[in-house]
Amino acid sequence: MNTIKTEVYTILEDAxxxxxxxxxxxxxxxxxIPFSPTKTPEHGDIATPIALGLAKQARMAPRNIAExxxxxxxxxxxxxxxxxxxxxxxxxxxxxxxxxxxDTLQTIAAMQAAYGSSDKGAGKRVQIEFVSANPxxxxxxxxxxxxxxxxxLVNLLNAVGYEAIREFYVNDxxxxxxxxxxxxxxxxxxxxxxxxLEIPEGGYQGEYLTEFAQTIVETDGDSHLxxxxxxxxxxxxxxxxxHILSQxxxxxxxxxxxxxxxxxxxxxxxxxxxxxxxxxxxxKSYLYEAEGATWFRMSDFGDDKDCVVIRQNxxxxxxxxxxxxxxxxxxxxxxxxxxxFGPDHQxxxxxxxxxxxxxxxxxxxxxxxxxxQVNLVDAEGNRLDMSKRRGQFFTLDALIDxxxxxxxxEFAVDVARYFFLMRANxxxxxxxxxxxxxxxxxNPVFYIxxxxxxxxxxxxxxxxxxxxxxxxxxVSLQQLNEPIEHELIRKLAEFPSIVLLSAETREAHRVPxxxxxxxxxxxxxxxxxxVLDSEDLEKTYARLILVQSVQTVLKNGLTxxxxxAPESM
Length: 569
Known about the structure:
This protein is of the alpha/beta class. It contains 19 helices and 15 strands. 50% of the residues lie in helices and 12% in strands.
């Protein structure tokens, strides 16, 4: 479709230039010609409002301009165009010849699993950092949403020619992991029978730490009580980080997310990079001392107030290792870096970008998006704060467990990933548990998967009756002349554009929407039209090519989303 639009663009541009040369249009230059989707096939395949855009410059009614442009297009010289209509105030509706529809099927048959891909990225390196949850507890459902979005964006970018990787930044340094060690210490001593203990302020209350402390006692007994408290807390901190990080890795693996790189904050701190960037900031006069602390002149970059980078006790605030980490990303040669932050990091965006700017890195090098809050809701939109069987319902694993009880383990991850991806990531997501637990076509992910399974079943039934698809070169595609067949092919032709647009705009939700629309055309086609007809094999072979194309696109799209494409359901 992109190729076709390029050809139509040139035809329209040439027509406008011809009208100007003939003195029929008084314009100084030809502006960019926009295209807009047509409402129905009756309105053509491609529409443009260019006549409305030229009206002011040409001092002429848009409809008159549209008629002039149409006059300078000879359909006989451009076989791609069947006819041109003028609609409304001056929209130019272009009806393409049927050949492009059949060419689309030829392209899908030739490219197969590669259909939808392109080389737009030209091998440019992109790093996407996502999830990066503190190693202080299980992954929550917002982290699950971030995992689904980040993983899909990497798939999309790689599909259109970028070299994209997944990276998890392990926040294994700083105050939060010290409080983790202190919290485990309390739980350990409580398990051993010590009373009157409380979790320190800012510590972690979760039952998971009591369970972990119990495993330490079962393995090591009370031997750690012999250590001085500071050493014991440090030991529990390191044990806790390793244990929780292992659990997070397992949760992500279950969720079909495999990170290419795991980077440790402590390693960044130990690398000397924080000291290097602080020296850079000093040389650029971005730092000053006040109130016993070191401050960064954030106000130099338009921020409301400056921020502390070294506390009174000499410890870095988290801004410094974060800035050093991004300098490390740049040094590794990434052309673009994309950070997906949780909803509680909104205020961190401008500051991090200012640090990156202060380091002299390109303004457009760092992109930051917020993965918004997830609410589990019932069919009426009421929040579900509790699970009847499990108590508080907040972890990614608990969500998958809950889904698996109804739809099975093999589909639980598919459902979770689809529901996390079906809304733009910068909007709040209401995760409809009742719908997600519905093992029927009302569930949108099953609706799409059923379409793929139906495609597979057609070929299985054909084989049982001795009807096997022929190579596309041996098939008369002109047999595909039903309006819904043309509608299906038009939708199939959109797929590469959807993939590219989703990758370039970082909007993964476009793909599930597209797949649902495609399934929404295929299901009625399947119900209303007989594909396998032993009395009309010529039409049967053509329809098998169409079904094969739908099957390919559904599978390619689901694969990009990290969702399975079952052959039977």
